[in-house]
Write a structure and sequence with these properties.
The protein is mostly helical. The protein has two domains: 121 residues, no CATH class; 54 residues, no CATH class. The chain is globular, with a radius of gyration of 20 Å.
Length: 188
């Protein structure tokens, strides 16, 4: 969640050190195994026929809409360093060029980006850890790849990641074996 918020909105939400963070609480509330979430995962198009099931919960939905709206307003007033631009900056630039791109559409995009990034990253890491646990020799090779290619353990750089060829191959193999887009809607 920290990485998704940082890359998308340049936010440091501190999900690990502050579990009572309102952002973290609201976000994880979307995935807490509620009836609405379980129904949506099992039967994506059924919620519109069940008015008594609320997903996402209004309280959480309202929080994210309000949070996103205030972030949009704040970002429009900021002058940003061109080297530190994120997805939100790109969306705001697109909005200037295309007036049909309303704030509501941007907010929807922001929320979808968070949800899909969080879910797919969590699943990918879970399956990668499973594969490493069931194949200790691969885990050892990946570990050696990381140790040999990190120049400073306290400051891992983007260049360091590019040197880790075995780890990258392991991630790609995980995605091949366990694709992240596993929900398919059927529309008749």
């Amino acid at each position: 969640m920290n990485a998704i918020a940082a890359v998308t909105f340049s936010l440091d939400i501190d999900a690990f050190d502050d579990p009572n963070n309102k952002f973290v609480e609201s976000f994880t509330g979307c995935f807490n195994g509620s009836l609405g979430f379980n129904l949506m995962m099992a039967f994506p198009n059924i919620l519109k026929y069940l008015p008594f099931v609320e997903y996402p919960p209004k309280k959480i939905d309202n929080y994210f809409v309000q949070f996103s709206r205030s972030l949009l307003e704040k970002r429009r007033k900021q002058i940003r360093n061109p080297e530190e631009l994120d997805f939100l900056d790109s969306w705001l630039e697109s909005q200037k060029a295309n007036p049909k791109l309303t704030d509501d559409l941007l907010i929807s995009q922001m929320i979808i980006f968070l949800i899909t990034g969080f879910e797919t990253s969590a699943y990918a890491l879970t399956f990668a850890m499973y594969l490493f646990a069931t194949h200790p020799q691969m885990q050892e090779k990946a570990y050696r790849d990381v140790i040999e290619n990190i120049s400073d353990p306290d400051n891992v750089t983007f260049e360091d990641y590019h040197k880790m060829k075995y780890l990258e191959a392991a991630i790609w193999e995980t995605l091949r074996l366990y694709p992240m887009d596993f929900v398919t809607d059927r529309v008749t």
